[in-house]
Amino acid sequence: MACDLILALDVPTREAAAPILRQLRGQLRWVKVGLQLFTAYGPNYVREVAGMGFKVFLDLKLHDIPNTVAKAVESLAPLPISMLTLHTAGGAKMMRAARAAQQQHIPNLLLLGVTVLTSMDSVGLSEIGVAASSADQVARLGQLAADSGLRGLVCSPLEVAMLRSQLPADMQLITPGIRPTSETGDDQKRVMTPADSARAGSTYLVVGRPILQAADPATAARAILAELAGS
Predict the structure, then answer these.
(1) Is 61 known to be catalytic?
(2) Which among 61, 71, 93, 189 is annotated as catalytic?
């Protein structure tokens, strides 16, 4: 399965993002805009990134009552976004409501269910009252998402092979927690190299700091793309 690369644009300001985007324009197709930039600059920043030729993955991790999440999805219809996240922990009714709003208002949008954040492990789950291991919780929430009509999941690369064995073959698996072999895991607990994640069955890899903090972001991105091409 072919695997594509998404830049996680996790920087504090549009001024910090601008030179990175200029360097990567024409080399990467995808940029993930998260809460930090969306909260700071709003919908117009999404339009700005899309206007540079990037496809936008809007990572808002919606989690609320079903009607509120459905209305939030509907409100995003004017924006040039191709992916949007919501928390699978919101339950089946919430996911079905979001899916219905997406189909009605943004038919080409891929809704992604976030299973267990890659910053969490089994210890972190136990602290919030989840007795299952991270792998078991991902399996449970992944199946719930599929049963609720979602066709994409965000998960750790360590759970990709397991999800591939239990979910429909067309399920899109988006994996953060990607670190080149030379990188440390920082606050990400469940990580894997780009090539290993691609071989496991990831559809998209989300990479932030290894590109953003590189002396030459374009070179760092090309190295990851070359690793994917050889995987």
Answers:
(1) yes
(2) 61
